[in-house]
Write a structure and sequence with these properties.
It contains five helices and no strands. It is mostly helical. The chain has a single domain, classed as Up-down Bundle (Ferritin). The two termini are 32 Å apart.
Length: 178
């Protein structure tokens, strides 16, 4: 079903963000089960970030006096053949979300919803970072696929994916910092 306006499209994006959350939890569990704690922690943090993105959209919809619909999502992919495929999937997902965010910003602009367009600007900036981080992680895991402990050591040494602090420009999430 094609959304009829920007607010409907934002409600659909809530589903996309929750689906990304679920996929990252599945990837984290995969690495956790393989006793790769740095990779697992990275994806658990990514899951929380995606959940927070959904809640930022919910807060915006509430503040803009639009209906909020909390959707169900399809089950995530859980069967991975190797250590590289989950990260490759995550990169594909980030590229897909980038396209979704860009389409939302364009839609807000086309509809003359300048508040909505401004709201989307932070997400556009965030997606540049997300794609870059996941691209780097994919290269690291591809190089270290035969020695995943080296990947773990690299992540620990370089602080890959560690919390970089709160972004003061980030939209407020519904429920605050839960």
């Amino acid at each position: 079903m094609t959304p009829s306006n920007f607010a409907d499209a934002l409600n659909e994006q809530v589903a996309n963000e929750y689906a990304a959350h679920q996929q990252y939890v599945a990837i984290a569990v995969h690495y956790d089960d393989a006793t790769l704690p740095r990779l697992a922690a990275f994806f658990y943090r990514q899951a929380v970030e995606e959940r927070n993105h959904a809640m930022m959209i919910v807060r915006y919809l509430l503040d803009a006096d639009h209906e909020v619909r909390i959707p169900g999502v399809a089950a995530p992919e859980v069967g991975f053949s190797d250590a590289v495929s989950p990260v490759a999937l995550a990169l594909e997902q980030e590229k897909r979300v980038t396209a979704q965010i860009s389409a939302l910003a364009a839609r807000a602009r086309d509809e003359g919803d300048y508040q909505g367009e401004q709201f989307m600007q932070w997400f556009i900036k965030e997606q540049v970072e997300e794609v870059s981080t996941m691209s780097d992680l994919l290269r690291i895991v591809e190089m270290g696929k035969d020695n995943l402990l080296a990947v773990e050591e690299y992540m620990a040494r370089e602080g890959i994916g560690e919390d970089e602090g709160d972004d003061p420009t980030a939209p407020v999430a519904a429920g605050g910092a839960l």
